[in-house]
Specification:
nine-stranded mixed sheet; TIM Barrel; single chain; about 45% helix; Arc Repressor Mutant, subunit A; 15 helices; three-stranded antiparallel sheet; alpha/beta
Length: about 375
């Protein structure tokens, strides 16, 4: 099993909180697609002919591309990789791009899972983030997706936003639970260096929400998701009827994946590599046959730390048997010695040899994970 991530680096405008690599220079679309095809051909052996079970279009804003362009990319991937007949193809999109015609086009291309970047149903908050859509367009996008035949729909939400009240957050959640969605990814706002939000925070022109209020918003999220039949299978991810994201789950389970496009990361179990985060440099390097990525060979300590970091966040947790098999008894003992105090304090639970964060543990997950790292 393996996955492919395709980074589409184009946005029509930049959101003030986002630090993912993107450009508003959409005139480079044709050159980018040619370069992407070049990278696909160049890296066709990276996954060693393993079955590709997930393909994920992220960005940026993949829905900037036309239905024909998406179809072309998928066809090119099918020629060069062993793509499973039951592959899960996920496509990130902005609500205002999702007309019935566009949705029909990407559905015909093979996309079956949508990830819609709603973020909020509060129009004033959307404007503050510099989002292009409004609340009505968000609702309409989901409704259009259902009409086009999609029954695996995920939406993104953000809490802990400056000025977001608990009442507004509860209203956002009530709205999303009225919609025919099967998956929710809800993230706490992070102030990333280089973003306008970060700059304004440092200048004092933007005021961060108090941590206590952010925690309360997270608690509301967990409770309301549970009441509406959504299972929290990872700290920020909730699914109904077992509709987990297979692609993201493969990251957390340590499976191989190939990242294509500028800034995309790849992992093959031995090393991690990342492409240059600059579209012109990416296009030129591939055209001229020059290196376009860097690579780091992972040490046993790196592999152990990544395993613990990703698995402890999920319902699959960390198994002592898996630790011994993969990393030996010394690392397993180290893990147990460092995690025992969190069991005693009710932040971690142990069930049949598997360690998981409790609900209270999720609130301080960064601290717990940092203390479990092997340095």
């Amino acid at each position: 099993m393996a996955g492919i991530y395709v980074h589409i680096p184009f946005c029509r405008q930049k959101c003030y909180y986002c630090d993912f690599y993107k450009t508003v220079n959409t005139s480079l679309t044709d050159k980018f697609i040619l370069a992407l095809q070049g990278e696909i051909a160049h890296r066709k052996n990276y996954l060693e002919n393993e079955s590709v079970d997930t393909i994920y279009f992220g960005g940026g804003t993949p829905s900037v591309l036309s239905e024909i362009e998406i179809t072309g990319i998928l066809n090119f991937l099918g020629v060069h990789f062993n793509v499973s007949p039951t592959v899960e193809i996920t496509f990130e999109a902005n609500p205002d791009d999702l007309s019935i015609e566009y949705l029909n086009g990407i559905y015909n291309a093979g996309v079956r899972r949508l990830s819609i970047g709603i973020q909020s149903f509060q129009n004033e908050i959307l404007k503050k983030m510099n989002r292009r859509h409004d609340s009505n367009q968000a609702v309409e996008a989901v409704e259009n997706a259902v009409k086009a035949g999609f029954n695996d729909i995920s939406v993104d939400l953000i809490y802990g936003l400056p000025g977001l009240t608990r009442k507004q957050w509860e209203a956002d959640l009530k709205q999303v639970f009225k919609l025919p969605v099967q998956h929710i990814s809800a993230y706490h706002l992070t102030y990333h260096k280089g973003t306008p939000f970060y700059t304004w925070l440092k200048k004092g022109t933007l005021k961060a929400l108090k941590e206590t209020e952010s925690v309360l918003q997270f608690q509301v999220l967990i409770q309301m998701a549970k009441e509406n039949g959504f299972e929290q299978y990872e700290i920020s991810n909730f699914a109904k009827h077992g509709k987990y994201s297979k692609h993201n789950s493969s990251y957390w389970k340590g499976l191989k994946y190939l990242g294509l496009g500028p800034s995309a990361h790849s992992f093959n179990g031995i090393s991690r590599s990342w492409n240059v985060s600059h579209i012109e440099s990416y296009i030129k390097a591939i055209k001229d046959g020059l290196p376009f990525s860097e690579e780091e060979i992972l040490s046993e300590n790196n592999k152990y730390n990544e395993f613990v970091l990703t698995r402890i966040r999920t319902i699959w947790g960390v198994s002592t048997d898996d630790l011994i098999k993969q990393f030996g008894s010394e690392k397993a003992r180290y893990f147990q010695q460092n995690i025992d105090k969190y069991i005693n304090s009710g932040l971690v639970k142990l069930d049949n040899g598997i360690y998981n964060l409790t609900e209270n543990g999720m609130f301080v997950s960064d601290e717990i994970m940092a203390n479990l790292m092997f340095i």
